[in-house]
Amino acid sequence: MLDMKYIREHEADVRAALDHRGADVDLDGLLEKDRERRAGLQEGERLKSERNTVSKEIGLRKKAGEDTDQQQQRMREVGERIAALDGQNRALEEEIAGILLTIPNVPHKDAPVGPDDTANRLIRTVGEAREFEFEPKTHVELAESLGLIDFTRAARMSGAGFVLFKGLGARLERALMQFMLDMHTREHGYTEIAPPLLCHAEAMTGTGQLPKMAEDMYTIPEDGLYLIPTAEVTVTNMYREEILQDPLPIRHVACTPCFRREAGAAGRETRGLIRVHQFDKVELVKFVEPETSYAELESLLGHAEEVLKRLELPYRVRELCTGDLSFAAARCYDIELWAPGQQAWLEVSSCSNFEDFQARRARIRYRNDKGKTAFVHSLNGSGVALARLFVAILENYQMADGSIALPPALVPYMGGLERIE
RNA sequence: GGAGAGAUGGCUGAGUGGUUUAAAGCGGCGGAUUGCUAAUCCGUUGUACGGUUGAAAAGCCGUACCGGGGGUUCGAAUCCCCCUCUCUCCGCCA
After folding, report:
1. What's the Å distance between residue A140 CA and nucleotide B78 C1'?
2. Which nucleotide, over all strands, has the C1' atom closest to the CA of A38?
3. Are residues A52 and A164 in the same domain?
4. CA Rg value for chain A
5. Is strand B within 7 Å of residue A240 (CB)?
6. A263 lies in the same domain as A128
7. From the Cβ of A56, is strand B under 7 Å away?
8. Which strand B nucleotides have any atom less than 7 A from protein CB atoms?
9. Is the alpha carbon torsion for A342, A299, A357, A9 positive or negative?
């Protein structure tokens, strides 16, 4: 969330930023509540100061055997006024906090301004889309004919949007996870984390999934738990309400299932792996000093791209415009893979710098070089999402006979297998 | 799931209603002493919010904070209630 003090002191900037995002926020109402709160706070603090002084005096006079009934009576009345003011102030504070939680981050000044994904900026395209001398099949056709995925049985158990990997399909899924985790831990300096897959509302609020995305998540009401839609939630909230002692930057990687209800997406991409309720994802998370966070964003993006380079898959990188940025992000790059069977670009990674937006919500701080506590900057990006990567591998590496020639980087992870047929 | 014991600053650990603005020690920071190191001595020490001075760095004033939330009281770390977490034992369990 944004700092109330920042909003107060940079009203015009905030107003412009929200406008660029297309966010509808009653900033005037918020600022008025903030003024009311500070006035009430000052009055309450003045009364408390008086009570503290007089109470101390009562103690001393009682010890001296003097009568203090009159003072006690007066302080009782002051106490009642304090209680009333405290109540008002708390209500105002809650209202203000509630509003702040719904205000999205201020985009970075260099983020392209625009209303939706048509205004996103193409950064680069890497690799060439392969020329097929036959009609490329979709991953659904390939996976079914090779027995890699059983869509029918998964749907019978769990409904549409769930998949069951089988045999070499399950093996390929596992190989991809292992390949990516090995690269990020051995070569890119990330520490591997295996976090809980369920967590409570406070953690979801910390990273910004709540309150806005409530209906996109699976819940377990009896226990007050949510299934994570991304490992970002638990890996970031690891440090909730902490002052970090470890030297920055902290770099973590986690491979977890991700659960998404995809509410509102009914009917879209119901076949196949493109949009599913449960998928695996390798997630990269960083906590860094504010001065370095944009350099860290570039290296994060590079780490995610490296996966696709090693797998020799064609992809492009786009920077999201202000209207397309996710709620908590200040700046974000999407990586999209070319899928010949779909004839479409598939988003497999979003690399975002949240600056101190998540850290303020989750109260994650560090000590700067002056020894002062300050909010860290947090970043994350997929490195990369599995289901769609699986799609791209099948569709890009398919042969005329329907078999899959595995990319060389993956062969060791498939026990030496070079081809799925 | 049952029973019991706990939760105090960066750490250890005192504190059962009023100079506690949280003792003491450790650690950290600054300084003194010192050929170097060690030791010793002196000083200092958290977080948040609000106000105020200042160009800023940084001061100063106030309030709150002893796991969280409520209550009693003129006054709560301390008394009462609820909750969470940790530990020990029992039960169950991959």
Report:
1. 69
2. B50
3. no
4. 27
5. no
6. yes
7. yes
8. 18-19, 46-51, 57-58, 62-64, 70-71, 73-75
9. negative
Q: Give yes or no: residues A78 and A123 share one domain.
A: no
- For residue A91, what are its two tokens? 């209500």
Both tokens of A181, joined, read 């985790």
Tell me, yes or no, whether A70 and A149 share the same domain: no
The residue out of A77, A101, A125 marking a domain boundary is A101
Distance A202 CA to B93 C1' (A): 29
| Residue ranges of chain A whose pLDDT lies below 70 | 264-270
Give the count of domains, chain A.
2
- Tens of pLDDT along A64-92? 878 888 888 888 889 999 989 988 888 89
Considering the candidates A299, A350, A352, A378, report the single residue annotated as catalytic.
A350
Residues A67 and A185 placed together within one structural domain of the fold: no
Q: Is A275 a catalytic residue?
A: yes
Q: Give the range of the structural domain holding residue A65, as residue numbers without chain letter.
A: 4-101
pLDDT in tens, A219-264: 888 788 899 999 999 999 888 888 887 788 899 999 999 999 987 6
Q: Return the sign of the alpha-carbon dihedral for residues A184, A188, A191, A196.
A: negative
Answer yes or no: are the C-beta atoms of A139 and A391 closer than 8 Å: yes
* Strand B–CB A79 distance below 7 A: yes
User: A347 catalytic, yes or no?
Assistant: yes
Instruction: Report the half-sphere exposure of A341 (CA within 13 A, side-chain side).
Output: 24
Q: Could you give the CA distance from residue A297 to residue A358 in angstroms, rounded to a whole number? A: 15
Answer yes or no: A378 catalytic: no
Q: Is A389 exposed, middle or buried (0-12, 13-18, 19+ CB in 10 A)?
A: buried
H-run or E-run covering A21: helix A11-21
In a domain, A112, yes or no: no
Among the candidates A68, A101, A134, a domain finishes at A101
Does one domain contain both A308 and A357?
yes
| Amino acid A374 CA to nucleotide B46 C1' distance, rounded Å | 14
Residue A278 (CA) to nucleotide B93 (C1'), in angstroms, measures 27
pLDDT digits (tens, 9 = 90+) for A111-146: 999 999 999 999 999 999 999 999 999 999 999 999
Q: Is the CB of A49 under 7 A from strand B?
A: yes
